[in-house]
Amino acid sequence: MIIIGLDPGSRYCGYGLLQIEDRKILAAGCDVLDVTKGKTLSLRLKSLYENIIAVLDEYQPEIAAVESIFFHRQVRSVFTLGHARGVILLALAMKDIPIVEYSPREIKKSVCGNGSASKQQVRYMINKIYPLKESPKRDDAFDALAVATCYYNRMKWL
Q1: Backbone phi, then psi, for 33, in 5-degree steps?
Q2: Which pairing describes strands 24-34 and 63-67: parallel, antiparallel, or unpaired?
Q3: The dihedral sign for the CA sequence 12, 113, 64, 25
Q4: Where do the structural domains in the chain lie, given as residue ranges?
């Protein structure tokens, strides 16, 4: 089974992959889709959709775990993030991939044991759990792998 975790963003979208067999993790990896080349939001969303579809085609995940929206003081940012999440959810639906959603707090608690953990703490724990060959530069990739880990942590007890 392959689980994809997604940390939505309209400029950078993190994705993390876990390959599971007999409830054990065989492989883990993460990266970021950089869609900043699009000059407008609509072009970035188009690029995001195309890139997500390419990742889904390449890795063929059986389930997707997606970070839900957290509320922020900047309303415009929330709406932009909502557009990006919509594109991601559409791509997953088009590929008939089941979706589960977790709040940032749930993800941090699952990975770090503390729902208020910082991005640095999440990055540290992901590095400890999975000895990645190449360490991504952006936190979005680690956050996405944390989302996949959250699903795995819940799945293994079912």
Answers
A1: -90, 120
A2: unpaired
A3: positive
A4: 2-155
| pLDDT beyond 90 at 20 | yes
Quote the pTM value: 0.91
Residue pair 71/79 in contact (Cβ under 8 Å)? The answer is no
Per-position DSSP letters for the chain, written without gaps between them: -EEEEEE--SSEEEEEEEEEETTEEEEEEEEEEE-TT-SSHHHHHHHHHHHHHHHHHHH--SEEEEEPPPP-S-HHHHHHHHHHHHHHHHHHHHTT--EEEE-HHHHHHHHHS-TT--HHHHHHHHHHHS--SS--SSHHHHHHHHHHHHHHHHHTT-
Q: Does domain 2-155 have CATH number 3.40.630.10?
A: no
* Residues 6 or more apart in contact with residue 45 via CB below 8 angstroms: 10, 35, 38, 83, 84, 87
Among residues 24, 21, 78, 11, the alpha carbon closest in space to that of 51 is found at 11
For the annotated catalytic residues, the residue numbers are: 7, 67, 140
At residue 46, the pLDDT reads 95
